[in-house]
Design a protein that fits this description.
Elements: E1 13-18, H1 34-47, E2 53-58, H2 66-71, H3 76-100, E3 105-109, E4 118-119, H4 122-130, E5 134-138, H5 148-158, E6 163-168, E7 173-174, E8 186-187, E9 189-191, H6 192-197, H7 205-213, E10 218-222, H8 228-234, E11 240-243
Parallel strand pairs: 1-2, 1-6, 2-5, 3-4, 3-5, 6-10, 9-11
Antiparallel strand pairs: 7-8, 10-11
Amino acid sequence: MPQRRAKRGKYRRVLLKMSGEVLRNRETGLSLDPEILAAFAARMKAVRRLGVEIAIVVGGGNIFRGASGESRGMDRTTGDYMGMLATVINALALQDALEREGVDTRVQTAIEMRQVAEPFIRRRAIRHLEKGRIVIFAGGTGNPYFSTDTAAALRASEIKADALLKATKVDGVYSADPVREPSAKRYAQLTYQEALTKRLRIMDAAAFALCMENRIPILVFDFFRKGHLEKALAGEVIGTMIKD
């Protein structure tokens, strides 16, 4: 009886953008929940069988947001740097969880801190990916006033990712907030221009412009729905795809 061939991913290399809020336990208020980290690591270990090279950018909103500091009277630049450091904490936590699952992982930061992570070096990052390691990019872009969405788009462009997968808690892009407006329409596919014309808040303007200029498709999908990460990597039709 012939053996079934393992399913392969549609993409060669992707960048997964996830919010730091994914790591928070909303019930207990714990910013970094060990069980959530372990579950994420197990999922990433499972999807590696698809043979897709995976880089990750994680936000720091579960710990600190620069914008929230500014709203409380803090200097915006100082707050943004604190937010960047929060992404490093999340990246190290993810690395620890992944390595406990036996997944080779490297953290690279835009802000140099050699004692805890590698500095971001594009060629080294690509080499890690080619060797099958997961690479986590932390520290944003290294500059204040830029979001982790922009960092994700920048890194995706630099490593020549085939797609940017934006992990959210909703199953795609809607014409309006589906919680407030149950009749809101979900889009299966959009062009960059349609997204701009409709003023859909998919990513901030700088991030969206980078993806559009470098023709990097953006897939917005429900990260928490079982099997959706695997389907996203396999190229199945889920969520909302934004491309030319």
